[in-house]
Amino acid sequence: MRNIRMMICYVGTAYHGFQRQNNARAVQNVIEDTLTQILGQQTLIAGCSRTDAGVHARQFCLSFRTHNPIPCGGLIRAMNSKLPGDIAVMGCEDAADDFHARYSCRGKEYEYLIHNADVRDPFLDNRALFYPYRMDTDRIGKAASFLEGRHDFTSFCGSDGMKEDNFRTVEYIRISSTDGMISVKIAADGFLYNMVRIIIGTLIEVNEGRMSPEDMPALLESKDRKLAGVTAPSHGLYLNKVFY
Question: Can you give the pTM of this predicted structure?
Fold first, then answer.
């Protein structure tokens, strides 16, 4: 029995997230159906993360087991010939028997894109959040710095995702701006439900003066989701890197 590690990327616009759904189209359904067809056996996969409907992934790791001896290079070619155009297999290799896409993962980096311009770009539709007001990257960067380190992120967790342990370690939040595109990259050892999108919504409120950067420590301490910003739309979010 082989244990396969596969890296894919996808545009999430047409999918109800990654996780298998019984009544909606999800990336996992498409990958499993395609693998089952190619390998000639029912194939179930484990994914490195759950992504919300509309969220994209530049790097997404999955693992599965098979008796089929097809070489990884052949499997990549076969998968990419059958998958829809918004999903692609980037890499594939035989992994150690104890490798698991989810449980072996040490952390992830998400990127949120904000198109900060006067005019909406139709070519960025469903790829970035359009925001036509001035963005003060120094101000939101100062607010973001308070979120780095190990904290209880209950205030930045959607109500459906509350866990017994809401502590996470944010390794960094990096904000950059190039030609009207603002990038917010957040790396952590794990993420709560909607955590990145709520952080982005909070930073936007800081930018608009409804909160100050210095409010962040008290917001973390409050453990009150209602005090944080709105949940930013999913279409600006990318799972950017997965760390093992």
Answer: 0.96
